[in-house]
Amino acid sequence: MAEPGNVAVVHVEARVAEGEDAGETFETTDVDVALESGSYDPHRDYTPMEFRVGAGEVPPAIDDAVRDLSVGEERTVTADPEDAFGPRDEGAVVEVDWDDLGDGDGPDAAVGKPVTAETGEVGWITDANGDVVTVDFNHEFAGQPVTFVVRLLDEREPSAGDD
Fold first, then answer.
1. Which residues contact 9 (CB under 8 A, 6 or more apart)?
2. What is the DSSP string of 63-84?
């Protein structure tokens, strides 16, 4: 069982929990799962996720799942929005002038494209109407239940580099 304060090394697969696309993988850290599920993106680096158990670095459902696992075990959990990617926050949807999109975003900006805020947050352009662009900084699955498949690959005490 992964202990609070220790570093957990996991592979995680996130799937749509409800609706027409239920069971579809939309994110994973495991290249084999990405290839099998058809969600593979050649621009991603598929590596295990490392986090300190109990530190709030990952969605609560993932943190809770590793506490019940031994190294080599896997668990599937379906999480409410609060334990997955959080509730949808309408305050995270902003309108900006097209000219204010920032370095590198302006020329390539279009509906569906990512935009990086000065704070480093990534949002998605959801509407472009004249000189005004709507950007949504919510996670794509905020406000929705998500099914996580969590496989504990390793657990260790933190080292100086983990701070």
1. 48, 49, 50, 152, 153, 154, 155, 156
2. HHHHTT--TT-EEEEEE-GGGT
**What residues does each domain of the chain span?**
7-86+141-162, 90-136
Q: Phi first, then psi: what are they for 120, rounded to 5°?
A: 95, -10
For residue 153, what pLDDT band results from cuts at 50, 70 and 90?
very high
CATH topology of domain 90-136: Thrombin, subunit H (2.40.10)
Report yes or no: 152 and 66 within 8 Å, Cβ to Cβ: yes
Q: What is the reported pTM? A: 0.81
**Per residue in 91-148, pLDDT tens?**
999 998 887 775 544 445 688 888 888 888 889 999 988 788 899 999 989 999 999 9
Assign domain 7-86+141-162 one CATH number from 3.40.605.10, 3.90.180.10, 3.80.30.20, 3.10.50.40: 3.10.50.40
What does the alpha-carbon distance between residue 78 and residue 94 come to, in Å, rounded to a whole number?
Answer: 30
